[in-house]
Amino acid sequence: MRKHLRWLFGAQRLRRRGILGMNRRNAEYILAHNPAAAIGLVDDKLRVHRLCAGIGVPTPDIFAVFDQISGVRRFSEQLGTRADFVIKPARGSGGRGVVVVAGRDHAGYRQSSGSRITLTAITNHLTDILSGMHSLGGQPDAAFIQQRVGLHPALTRIAVDGIPDVRIVLYRGEPAMAMLRLPTRESNGRANLHQGGLGVGVELHSGKTYHAVQANRRIRRHPNTGAALLGRCVPCWDSMLAMSRQVAAAVGLGYLGVDLVLDPQRGPLLLEANARAGLAIQHANGRGLLPVLKAIDERCARREFIDSRGSGGISADGVATIGAKSA
Amino acid sequence: MTRNRLCTATAFVLVAATGIIVALRQFPDGALAGLFGGLSLATLPTAERHLVEFLLLLPVAALVICVFRNLIGIVSFGTFAPALVGLVFRDLKSLPGLGVFVGLLLTGWLMRRVLDRFHLLQVPRASVMLSLIVAMLVTFVAVASRCELAVTKYVTLFPVIILTGMVERFWLLEADDGAGSSFRTLIGTLVIAVSVALVTGIAAIPRTLLHYPEAMGLVVAMQMLVGRYTGYRLTELWRFREFSQSAYQPPEEALVISQTLPWRRF
Question: What is this model's ipTM?
Fold first, then answer.
């Protein structure tokens, strides 16, 4: 009995391992470092898309934007013969309201999950999005049609039924922790951790995977393919870090998560930014965020970074280890 | 740090002020006693007293919600919706109310499933839901009164608008994250609502608040203290149990913060 209740008395041990909890994240990182205007900016994926175009960060192409119910009728005109795209709400979160279309035939469209969706169902879905059904707080929203990113050859053995993405959490403009999110059969091709997707911790300096979890449990191999998850290199890692830095500086958020995908043709693309980056990245990395965030605070206090809000800069000592005290 | 101290200080001032007001009122000849005697809430007519009592209990219910969300970490449909449902349970003074609530919600959810086929726009769809829920309630009241059940005179107090909103949230959560997620949230909502009903059902609380409305200062002080609590939530101890129970240490070299790359276009 006592053994089963041990987790109840784990606060001290969690603190020692530097686990960041929801309350502390909200009070000390989001409220203190994220201005409301900047949160409003990243909540709207279309605004982030435009901002990225302005600073030269590549994003998936957007084929069409629908912001009025009357425009929804022209869906097939605007899409032409395209049969490979993603429908998203501009202000949705956590994959809500996303429809992935992977092909079409005489009867209609085919979803990536294999089920069919008619043109009427698509326009109805667009109307739902516009009326705010999938947006934060239920406010009226816009819908957009985005390029469907392909699966990079380097990731085929470790991604099942969907596209993996990379989440980098940045604090004061510096990458603090990163993970690769892999879809599984159980997660229905979605890379969300709480739905059975895999979280794989990535070393920031090398882009190598070193720790992996499924539903909080450590694993070494992909449950569906049996492929090894650890010791793999994420392709284009340096560009991903640089892109995430540029975006963090441009949106002006002190604590944010940046999601990137890897397109086989175009390389890393910025998918979205998140002002309330979740805490599951700690599971994926097998470590807490707090020591890293504190180390970044210390480095900022020592002015090692030139300007966390500027266009990036070169740090004084290059690589620094957490906890290493400067002389 | 300073913000925490400022908050604790403010909470302390609120508690002290409440204490001073209560103490000063004990002097029968004092100015405060005269003021409060003239504005006494306990001597209001019954209807007004009920209204004031309900209003005074709202912040208490909100405090219960703060505790559940920030100290325990239970999710619910809406932030303050469970508080209103809980206050209605309190008026119902019975467990059948709970069953009625869950029954209405689940029936509403089934109706919502059917309604989805019509592809209605959001506001008209919500209006249809509202009408259906009202029809359900009216039928329930009629049937229950035929069976001479005493509960029914309270059922009309059910916050129909809140129920409509909850059905919609239940439906959306079920569509996006599956039935497990939506039922977990439903149970969370019920736990919070029942707790609000139990806490506000303690007779001493509304009585004290009616006689000493300044006790609201204590409630606000506690809300402020919860507002600066940055420790772990109870559910997080469970969520992160792997970290407190396994001895696994990640490799040290992964602790390296990456080199700041020179800015470049790509």
Answer: 0.82
